[in-house]
Amino acid sequence: MKRAVASLLLFFAVAASADTLLVVNKKDALLAFVDPESLKVIEKIRTGEGPHEVAVSDDGKTAVVCNYGTAPNPGVSLMIVNVPDRREVRRFMLPGLLRPHGIQAIGSRFYITFEGSRAIGRYDHATDRLDWIGGTGQDVTHMLVVAPGEKKIYTANIGSNSVSVLDLTNAPRQIALKQIPVAKGPEGIDLAPDGSALWVAGRTEEGGITVIDPKTDSVVRTIPSATKFANRLKFTHDGKQVLVSDPKTNEIWIFDAASGQLVKKIPTAAGPSGILLTPDGKRLFVACANAGKVQVIDTATWTITGEVETGNEPDGLAYAH
């Protein structure tokens, strides 16, 4: 009887919240659906091998999981998910492209890096096809960020210590390509909400953070970060602060966006990797890979207010709103 009542209460809690947090668990090869209010796992579904990142369409109905693969087996597919029904719709096989990884959704389009092919592409869910592919010519093209208007794409290339700028103004006939040398091992990357700056975090101790002016696509400064392994980087929605996850120090570092100064470190559970702000910016979700859980940080106080165990090695996060 108690179990039935508990299940009923969870049902109403989930029904009351239209939002869903999606969490990719790499070792389990599972996608977890979490109610962001009750912090309860609603359901888990199987993905392809080694899923790393996930993104949700603007309408909150479709998610795409990048099946990155394992060390001996490069991933060659995307998993298309119906979010409200919490089920896989289809498996999209990539045409000769290896290791899909970084992903960003704009409308029904998903921009994706193909790390094993030194390329990026765009998957259009509305037509169920890759409608263009562009090469970066750089090693380990890992994460990306798309500028407003979809006229520019920036990629962090870990193996080449560079950021690629793909100018899509005249796409698909012509895609202009520029390489920008940045801090060693660039991985975390994000664009300020007003488009005034691009920050890129090097994941080595001597890497630091490179700041690029998107107007000129040139480096304007390098900020010493002292992180052990900068993994992900995100601007707050107001553009005033920049958040960096460090899975080796088990901390979230907060930088002042204007001055570049470190203002705070937040201790977390083991292995903070993927980070995601809620649409209202009031909470930060942190995927703590080595702890098997996602923690929640209140951005008003920068304190941890909750957590949920999602599976083995949670990493990529997305929010359906």
Descriptors:
single chain, 321 residues, mainly beta, 28 strands, globular
Offer a quick outline of the entry.
Helices cover 5% and strands 55% of the residues. It has 321 residues and is mainly β. The model is unreliable at 4-17 (pLDDT under 50).
Q: How much is the radius of gyration in Å?
A: 19 Å
Bulk shape: globular
Number of strands: 28
Going by helix content, strand content and strand pairing, the class is: mainly beta
Main beta-sheet strand count, sense and barrel state:
4 strands, antiparallel
Q: What is the helix content? A: under 10%
Distance between the termini: 33 Å
How are the strands of the biggest sheet laid out side by side?
A: 3-2-1-28
The number of distinct helices, counting runs of at least 4 residues, comes to: 1
Q: Which regions are unreliable across 5 or more consecutive residues at pLDDT < 50?
A: 4-17
Give the strand content. over 45%
Output the helix-strand order.
HEEEEEEEEEEEEEEEEEEEEEEEEEEEE
Mean pLDDT: 94
